[in-house]
Design a protein that fits this description.
Distance between the termini: 46 Å
Mean pLDDT: 89
Low-confidence stretches: none
Radius of gyration: 25 Å
Length: about 300
């Protein structure tokens, strides 16, 4: 529920989905496993996307709004992979996957009249059409006999753009403005083409230590009046250390974003594809010290 001009509003919707899944594993040999999986998945919109709240800046004819009519994303998912356990604690794996997605959610900019006020740039989430993801994932982990080990995994995704129909305002030669629709293409949000992480660790009965590096390439965020908005490529280094002080007490230390990375959103201008600066944000380096007790 929400409130517009002091009056309560209420929206209702319902949906039902059948979400079957199947997983198959076959031991090709004593150290090689073949896996196959198929499932149907559902992802609901985030509560803030559904909230019927509107934030306006009339001076610039802009604002943002939730969308209580959003439908959940659904996907048919398929995987086929193989794993080779070349030592009892080491694995080399390769998996191919495909996802057929319907009703994904993206943010766009529309024109709307709200409480008699013409808002030309209103950012709001909407459902897209259908799209698909094809990809492959590689993973390797190896543990040495001296407590040291390492791991790496890499994921490549190829995402098809989705065709969507959007409302637009068209100005006629006589100066009149009429509403119309036009087809355009939109990318699947929050999906990087390349992502990987790699790390090294040490473990024994007393200490454990781990350092990890994460990377993901740029990805689409939203459609705006300027053009598409993207998050630039990201990378981060984290570290963890723990000490078993006694049989019952473990002291842990965690350091996140050791290289103090800054995340940048930028725009790709629709008229000529030029890159325009946007916003930057950073969580800074973060350190955590903790202790756990076991009975």
């Amino acid at each position: 529920e929400g409130t517009v001009a002091g009056d309560p509003v209420k929206y209702e919707s319902d949906y039902s989905e059948w979400l079957p899944s199947i997983n198959i594993a076959y031991d090709l040999s004593s150290d090689v496993i073949l896996r196959a999986a198929a499932s149907r998945a559902l992802t609901r919109p985030a509560p803030f996307q559904l909230a019927p709240a509107v934030n306006l800046t009339p001076e610039t004819s802009s604002g943002s709004a939730g969308n209580p009519f959003l439908e959940p994303l659904t996907a048919a998912q398929y995987e086929l992979g193989a794993e080779w356990y070349f030592t009892p604690e080491s694995v080399l794996g390769l998996t191919a996957f495909k996802k057929d997605i319907s009703n994904f959610i993206y943010t766009t900019t529309v024109s709307a009249v709200i409480e008699g006020e013409q808002i030309n740039q209103l950012r709001t989430p909407v459902n897209g059409g259908n799209t698909s993801i094809d990809g492959v994932e590689f993973q390797m982990q190896h543990a040495f006999d001296n407590g040291f080990g390492g791991y790496v995994n890499y994921t490549y995704t190829d995402v098809a753009d989705a065709k969507v129909t959007e409302a637009v305002l068209i100005t006629n030669p006589d100066g009149s403005v009429v509403a119309a629709t036009q087809d355009s293409y939109v990318e699947l949000p929050n999906t990087s083409k390349n992502s990987y992480n790699l790390g090294a660790y040490y473990e024994d009965d007393l200490f454990s230590a781990r350092v990890n590096y994460n990377y993901r390439s740029e990805y689409f965020l939203a459609k705006t009046e300027i053009g598409n908005q993207y998050r630039d490529e990201q990378q981060q280094v984290d570290a963890q250390l723990s000490w078993n002080a006694t049989e019952n007490i473990t002291i842990s230390f965690e350091a996140l974003n050791l290289t103090n990375e800054i995340w940048e959103n930028y725009y790709e201008r629709a008229s000529d594809g030029a890159r325009l600066g946007g916003t930057q944000s950073s969580n800074g380096r973060r350190y955590y010290l903790g202790a756990s007790f076991r009975l």
